[in-house]
Amino acid sequence: MEKKYYYHENGKEDKLIEAFSDSAAYLEAYTDFEISKKSKKNVNETFGGNPLEIPTSFELLNEKHEEITYKINFAKRDSLEKSISDLINSLPDNLKESVAEAKSKSNQAGTTDSAQIKTLKPFFINKKDEFDVNKQSWFELKSSPKYRNQNGIYCYFGSENGNVDNFRFVIQYYADDWLFIQKYQFSIDGKAYEFVPNKVDSDSGDGGYIWEWCDQNINSSNVDLIESLANAKEAKIRFVGRQYVQTKVISQKEIRNIKRALDFYKAKGGEF
Asked: Strands 152-160, 137-141: parallel, antiparallel or unpaired by DSSP?
């Protein structure tokens, strides 16, 4: 359920904000603050006369009317504030049009894509850690392999205090012969990629079968591989071991699910 928040400017209550989390309420309050600064400055510059007081700070209160402005911490707060400020200050000085456009664009840039979330949410499960004080949880596709002793390639991501992060890439190899995998090579729509994991784990059982897998965070240095896989028409993976190699076709289902994970991560505000 949405919670109520109260935005104060120059010591006066100016607006009621309804949001699902403290961070979402803060971003809306920060957007209102930047719009107020710009609009009042524009009025003063345009009309002169008795100048309007340009705010230098704002306060955000929770439902109990407790001031929480400086108690809210979430991922990429500084960069989101800067993107909102830059966006609003770049708008033309037409007051009504500026406010309407700023509201629309800042909602897109600073929060989430609710329509996309609604579409993709049924494909995922949210595994929560009831003992984690930061409310850590993981968004995993329902169709992803449940155990390591299965072949598969897929992605998932985490959430902490309501903010998504830690987008991860998993590659699992299951067979009756060891490869002692050192790296992975991809052919995606005719273009070659290479992925060298930080670590490959292994285990054995099932009457002589073995499994080797990596589970690694994806960042800006290797996100191009995930983007390419998510939009691939056809793709293959080569498992490069210490002495042997094995090549497999990445199924359309796996490609489709990588795209779903990537789109869901971005829709919920995730960045690389």
From this structure: antiparallel
Q: Phi and psi for 249 in degrees, rounded to 5?
A: -85, 135
Q: Which helix (H) or strand (E) holds 268?
A: none
Under DSSP, the state recorded for 136 is -
> What is the CB neighbour count within 10 angstroms for residue 208?
8
- Alpha-carbon dihedral 33, 35, 39, 45, rounded to 10 degrees: 80
Average pLDDT over residues 29-34: 92
Helices (H), the chain: 22-47, 77-89, 95-110, 114-120, 223-230, 252-267
Type of residue numbered 192: A
Split at pLDDT 50, 70, 90, the class of 113 is confident
Please compute, for residue 210, the number of CA atoms within 13 A of its CA located in the half-sphere on the CB side. Answer: 11
| Inter-residue long-range contacts of 51-60, CB under 8 Å, 24+ positions, other chains counted | 53/10, 55/9, 55/10, 57/33, 58/7, 58/8, 58/9, 58/29, 58/30, 58/32, 58/33, 59/7, 59/8, 59/9, 60/5, 60/6, 60/7, 60/8, 60/17, 60/25, 60/26, 60/29
- Three-state DSSP class for residue 107: helix
Give 146-151's long-range contacts (Cβ < 8 A, gap of 24+).
148/172, 148/201, 148/203, 148/211, 148/213, 149/174, 149/203, 149/205, 149/206, 149/209, 149/211, 150/174, 150/211, 151/248
Q: Give pLDDT tens digits for 250-260.
A: 999 999 999 99
Percent of the chain surpassing pLDDT 90: 65
Phi, psi of 72 (to 5 degrees): -90, 120
